[in-house]
């Protein structure tokens, strides 16, 4: 992955970050050393989506990928890999022995534990390593959900996040989701019921599934499914793309699918997927309700101190944030997005509803820069301009540097033509 980054003008460094419950997370740091300044390059944390990895933010060309765009602007880019994906499928014991996760470990893999344990550990590492006092954060899909969950209950970081951007966060799934999404979410309880025996349940839920590993310079191993049935992982990628609603899929550059198929899927657990289905049935964002899966051996009363799983008060987030939704999202439809915007009382300047984009287009679209990423960079730059004269001057140097690269940018014409 370091070679891939270098071909796009960036330097990539890997870190291992230990969580409070012993997961060893692989974190990737991307910098453009021609413009990077250890004092003035503000860190940005990028959080990936479901079944994905840090590579989501680098999968397009240099002038189209958010990770590279931010690095070229002089930001210090840190990309988390959540527990149980291909880069973070290890644990460390108290005597610092590295071991594979146990089935019991995998039962605590969902956005709940990513919010409680993964994100705080990585934010602490960034602040320690960079000696900065604050960072920016971006979360796509599950990454946005996890950030909202973390910020709603862990106010230790309120003054450490300058601004948080949520890209197509899964905060609520309503009746305007796609038929396939509603069907999958509706039958999930029946699937867990059929796995009432703990041994059967653990076989499927107590493990990582669908993790590819085809590039030799990635330090990871394939899941059993991808080793035995490599076409299965390819089929997963094809299914995810093909089942996006809408016609033409003009926002996805098909020439990049070969690169993506080497990284997607990047491993996940059925517990993570099941947690999202609970949100569909409950109509709110809450912690895992273990009452519906007693075969897990985990009880709400032991986990939370109550029989009811706590509901996340996402309206209580104190950090400044903005949200991007799309009109063609198979998980959260337009009406659901508008309900979330109203519930959170988000001001018009802090949300955007991107026309015609699907859920995947947000992060993979070849023209996402024009409709989404450039706005993120501009927002961060504007905040930086309020943080003192040194940063104002540095922003000027960064903008001049980007202009000197002469990278292709047709966004003015694309936006003017309204082809989103």
TrEMBL record:
Annotated signal peptide: none
Molecular function per GO: hydrolase activity
Entry-linked InterPro entries: AB_hydrolase_1, AB_hydrolase_fold
Domain AB hydrolase-1: 43-177
Domain of life from the UniProt record: Eukaryota
Keywords: Glycoprotein, Hydrolase, Lipid degradation, Lipid metabolism, Signal
An annotated GO BP: lipid catabolic process
Protein family membership: Belongs to the AB hydrolase superfamily. Lipase family.
PANTHER family, sorted: LYSOSOMAL ACID LIPASE-RELATED
UniProt name for this protein: Lipase member J
Source organism (scientific name): Galendromus occidentalis
């Amino acid at each position: 992955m370091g070679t891939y980054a270098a071909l796009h003008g960036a330097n990539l460094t890997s870190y291992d970050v230990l969580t409070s419950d012993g997961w060893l997370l692989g974190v990737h740091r991307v910098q453009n050393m021609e413009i990077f300044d250890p004092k003035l390059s503000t860190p940005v944390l990028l959080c990936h989506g479901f079944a994905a990895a840090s590579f989501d933010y680098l999968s397009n060309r240099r002038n189209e990928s958010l990770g590279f765009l931010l690095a070229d602007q002089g930001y210090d880019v840190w990309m988390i890999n959540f527990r149980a994906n291909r880069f973070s499928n290890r644990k460390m014991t108290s005597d610092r022995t590295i071991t594979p996760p146990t089935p019991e470990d995998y039962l605590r893999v969902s956005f709940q534990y990513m919010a409680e344990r993964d994100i705080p550990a990585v934010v602490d590492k960034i602040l320690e390593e960079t000696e900065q006092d604050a960072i920016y954060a971006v979360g796509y899909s599950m990454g946005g959900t996890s950030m909202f969950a973390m910020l709603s209950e862990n106010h230790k970081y309120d003054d450490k996040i300058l601004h948080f951007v949520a890209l197509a966060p899964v905060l609520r799934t309503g009746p305007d989701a796609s038929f396939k999404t509603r069907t999958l979410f509706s039958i999930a309880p029946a699937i867990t019921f059929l796995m009432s025996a703990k041994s059967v349940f653990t076989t499927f839920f107590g493990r990582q599934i669908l993790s590819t590993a085809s590039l030799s310079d990635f330090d990871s191993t394939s899941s059993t499914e991808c080793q035995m049935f490599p076409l299965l992982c390819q089929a997963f990628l094809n299914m995810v793309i093909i089942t996006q609603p809408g016609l033409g899929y003009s926002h996805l550059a098909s020439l990049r699918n070969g690169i993506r198929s080497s990284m997607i899927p990047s491993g996940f657990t059925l517990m993570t997927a099941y947690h999202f289905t609970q949100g569909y049935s409950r109509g709110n964002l809450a912690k895992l309700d273990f009452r519906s899966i007693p075969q897990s051996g985990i009880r709400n009363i032991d986990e939370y101190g109550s029989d009811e799983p706590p509901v996340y008060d996402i309206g209580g987030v104190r950090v400044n944030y903005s949200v991007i939704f799309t009109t063609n999202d198979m998980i959260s439809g337009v009406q659901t997005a508008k309900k979330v915007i109203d519930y959170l009382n988000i001001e018009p300047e802090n949300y955007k509803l991107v026309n015609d984009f699907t859920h995947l287009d947000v992060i993979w679209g070849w023209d996402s820069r024009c409709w989404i990423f450039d706005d993120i960079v501009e927002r961060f730059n504007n905040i930086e301009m309020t943080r003192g004269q040194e940063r104002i001057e540095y922003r000027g140097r960064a903008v001049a540097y980007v202009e000197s690269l002469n990278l292709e940018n047709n966004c003015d014409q694309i936006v003017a033509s309204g082809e989103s």
